[in-house]
Specification:
alpha/beta, Rossmann fold, 5 domains, seven-stranded mixed β-sheet, 20% strand, flat, binds coenzyme A
């Protein structure tokens, strides 16, 4: 049976099945009543703005302002404390100074309030004292089974309830975009921008310090929200990598999730002592996690919202073949370049389309993709071109470019594009109106008709690329994960680690690492430790020749440099001599370094040199590496990464295929292909090993020799915490 068949049985991803929403947020988003603790009658105070926002959003439930000094606020009866309200309160928004929040949260707990939005600042963002206050607040919420957003947030909105439980200046129109932001400032800026651009939202959530509810909870909630079509996030970190991966995987199986992640992850800050650790850049765990979970990563705010507009307003393309219709050559070429840049495809029109275009358009027009309807084109010529192109089955999406000439009728062309979109609603359409004043009316018409119209074609193509990537992932089907792996002995590994720890070491000796490999069914070169020449000779006779001998000391990184390695040893005399020679050499170079003995390793035939490694990310756990191995690993940097959590069979295959090493494995320049399945088997078993033992902080198997049949781990370095 193939290693993939053997260990990656195609059961459905348990992560998808198991994923559970931490809290039921129904009453959080659709409360029947809301209390505002710290409500104020004073104009200009946050406690006043929140009350006004809730009222003006059209909220239909009961509103209870709470302030011991007032009888009424904004004509609503005011209560001294939440304990004085005799009715059920589903949600409390807290806007009192940080020090007062604990008492309020406790009172909410006592009166059965299950949801809090804590606006107050002055928590972990202010330092140690604030952090302790925040921990205490989180503890109170946990004890009382309260779901809390914040603290230090702007609040939340649901336009469909409707409810604006925030102190933001704007309440956006109803829409199908859920926006989750770790930055309050970014959120209010976007809301203001969206008012001008007519962008609608379903939910808007300001995460604040994420002391209780996190981005993962809201991503999941939005994934199950029937009115949300696309989920947008701005985050600086994730609160819990594992939960995030599960939530994001589930969400992306339902709808697109687009994330702008700023800041640098902790992984890079960790001093890496392995090759794998050094190769994994600071942000790598995030980009790997996003890719594995099917999240579309945007790099700018502009791109985040361009993609949101595209996903919200247009259907997902069924493929990557793009048709371009333009009235000018230059922009057509720019667009073609961008299509190639994003690894999309210029649609190749079928014969009928080309013939149809030839008979309808002037002789000077280009009837191949990009279709050039020429500078003097009126709306009619665009109509003829669109009719032909949109009916072609080899076209998955279309971009219409318009440059302003003296005879361009921007609004007429907009009408034609809108008609075409109505006639072919299943194919996404985008426009680039490349100009300003002259084209503004037409661009506005398109946006009102929900056809994304950008100023430049690059934006349209980037949006199509994001949509195509999402479509490809969906069509790839459900992921499979590692099933139960046979032939794994955890006890052996546990015992080895216990002994290493008792010995006060962090790095395993080669012979210990070889036994770990053996316990996990990873084929490796037999390696034993000898502490005297006599023992070495005995071991050598059992192992057989030829042999390699190496000094055993985790303190010595470059063994060859200190005369600590002898290769091609063919008899017991050579074993005895080499033992003494290596010991002397090492003593001469490094007199103070304690050595554990000399290791004997079976000399293996050469194969294709690979590296399989792991570095542990603080957020996402084990990050697996695969690539070209040997001494030039750091120079060549031919390495692909994936998180071990939920690693799937197709992902391992894709990981191998991403590297140049895969070209060698497939048989380069007449060489025989190597046993890729055996390599995959080592990957899978290594991923299992580092998942089963969180104390493994780093692992390098370098090299792994891949043969025509089979593969073998040669040098294994395992570091434990
Ligand atoms: N129960 C009910 N009302 C209370 C209360 C309690 N336990 N404690 C205080 N209040 C009342 C106050 O008497 C006051 O009433 P008043 O307006 O009638 O005088 C009101 O609540 C507000 O308290 P006050 O002490 O005046 O605070 P404030 O309004 O100046 O500031 C915050 C409160 C929460 C807005 C402020 O502490 C804060 O954190 N600001 C920053 C918010 C922020 O930026 N969040 C993050 C965005 S990204």
């Amino acid at each position: 049976m193939s290693p993939i068949g053997m260990v990656l049985e195609s059961e459905e991803c348990p992560q998808l099945k198991k994923v559970k929403r931490l809290a039921d947020l129904t009453s959080f988003f659709k409360p029947t009543s809301v209390a505002i603790v710290g409500a104020s009658s004073k104009e200009g105070k946050i406690g006043n703005a929140i009350v006004k926002n809730i009222i003006s959003s059209g909220y239909k439930g009961k509103i209870f302002p709470i302030n011991p000094k007032d009888k009424t606020i904004e004509s609503l009866e005011c209560y001294p404390s939440v304990l004085d309200i005799k009715e059920n309160v589903d949600l409390a928004v807290i806007s009192v100074p940080a020090a007062g929040t604990l008492k309020v949260a406790e009172e909410c707990g006592r009166s059965g309030v299950k949801n809090l939005v804590v606006i107050s600042a002055g928590f972990k963002e202010t330092g140690h004292q604030g952090l302790n206050l925040e921990k205490e607040l989180a503890r109170i919420c946990k004890e009382n089974n309260i779901s809390m957003l914040g603290p230090n947030c702007v609040g939340m909105m649901d336009t469909h309830v409707p409810l604006n439980a925030s102190f933001a200046a704007n309440f956006p129109p109803k829409g199908d975009i859920a926006f989750i932001s770790q930055s309050g400032a970014m959120l209010v800026a976007i809301l203001d921008w969206s008012m001008v651009n007519g962008l609608g939202f379903s939910k808007v959530i300001s995460l604040g310090n994420k002391a209780n509810l996190t981005e993962s909870d809201f991503i999941l909630e939005a994934a199950h929200d029937p009115v949300t079509r696309v989920i947008l996030c701005y985050i600086e970190d994730v609160a819990d990598g594992e939960h995030f991966l599960r939530a994001a995987r589930e969400a992306t199986s339902r709808k697109p999730v687009i994330i702008l992640k700023s800041g640098v992850s902790q992984a890079g800050a960790q001093a890496a002592s392995s090759h794998t650790g050094a190769l994994a850049g600071s942000d790598l765990a995030y980009s790997t996690a996003f890719a594995q979970a099917g999240v579309i990563r945007s790099t700018t705010m502009a791109e985040l919202f361009d993609l949101a507009v595209a996903f919200s307003r247009q259907p997902i393309p069924s493929g990557s073949r793009v048709a371009v219709i333009t009235n000018a050559g230059g922009p057509g070429i720019v667009t073609t370049d961008r299509i190639e840049h994003h690894k999309l495809t210029m649609a190749r029109f079928n014969k009928n389309t080309v013939e149809g275009l030839r008979t309808s358009l002037p002789a000077e027009a280009n009837v191949y993709n990009p279709v050039d309807v020429l500078g003097d084109a009126g709306a009619d010529r665009y109509r003829l071109a669109l009719e032909k192109v949109m009916t072609d089955e080899s076209v998955d999406s279309a971009v219409v470019l318009v440059c302003p000439t003296a005879v361009t009728n921007a609004e007429g062309i907009a009408r034609v594009i809108i008609e075409a979109h109505r006639s072919y609603p299943e194919k996404p359409m985008f426009a680039a109106y490349m100009g300003g004043e002259m084209l503004a009316g037409g661009a506005h018409m398109l946006n009102v008709a929900r056809i994304p119209c950008f100023t430049f074609p690059e934006t349209a193509i980037a949006a199509i690329a994001g949509m195509s990537a999402y479509a490809n992932r969906k069509s790839a089907g459900k992921p499979v994960v590692m099933g139960e792996i046979q032939g794994v002995d955890r006890h052996v590994v546990k015992e080895i680690f216990q002994r290493v720890k008792a010995d006060g070491r962090l790095v395993l000796l080669g012979s210990e690492a070889a036994r770990v490999m053996e316990a996990y069914g990873i084929p490796s070169a037999p390696t034993v430790l000898a502490t005297s020449p006599e023992e070495a000779m005995e071991q050598a006779e059992i192992m057989g020749f030829p042999l390699v001998m190496k000094v055993a000391s985790p303190k010595i990184l470059h063994k060859t440099d200190v005369g600590g390695v002898k290769i091609g040893i063919n008899n017991v005399e050579e074993v005895s001599n080499s033992f003494l020679e290596i010991s002397e050499n090492v003593h001469k170079y490094l007199p103070r370094v304690v050595i554990h003995g000399i290791e004997l390793q079976k000399m293996m035939p050469r194969g294709i040199e690979l590296i399989i490694g792991m570095t542990r990310d603080v957020q996402f756990g084990p990050l697996m590496a695969f690539g070209l191995g040997g001494i030039y690993v750091n120079l060549l940097k031919d390495v692909a990464f994936r998180l071990a959590a939920g690693l799937t069979g197709p992902e391992i295959e894709a990981m191998i295929a991403e590297t140049k090493a895969s070209t060698l494995l497939r048989g380069y320049r007449g060489e025989e292909p190597a046993d890729i399945k055996a390599v995959t088997n080592i990957m899978v078993r290594s991923a299992r090993l580092v998942t089963d033992f969180p104390e493994i902080t780093e692992m390098d198997i370098n090299p792994v020799f891949a043969y025509k049949q089979g593969a073998s781990a040669l040098d294994v370095k395992i570091t434990v915490s």
